[in-house]
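Quick one: structure for this chain?
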Amino acid sequence: MVELNSLDQLKGAVATAAVEAPVHVQKLDAHGRAYATGKRKNAIARVWVKPGTGKITINGTEYQAYFARPVLQMILRQPVMLTNRDGQYDIVATVTGGGLSGQAGALRHGISKALTHYEPELRAILKKEGFLTRDSRVVERKKYGRAKARRSFQFSKR
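Got it. Here's what it folds into:
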């Protein structure tokens, strides 16, 4: 602990502390893969990214077969396309829970995080687009005396 005796020393200490930004380093496992977990609604995706030919496998199947709708395929590939890394990484993912839309969002979140673990300099691009932020919206619970979360039962005077 450094003892400060004047305001000038305090200003100098604050200036040096503000300059030191958090340093993001590459995080790889023993197999040379980057791992991340993505979440959206009730879906949880575990994602591994490694150098390869651009193959995306979800729960053991190709992503085109798993997500038949083109919109979900587009959501899934957004982080790779945005960072111009299409065809450079193989992505292996397991996803559970939720519906297909939530699973696609969870995969997008997980792929974005795994890409930043593999290449920390991509963090600024992905953060600017909001891909690293976990969308915390979940379905509101049903209350007693209500038909759904907020909807009342139909009212009849007679």
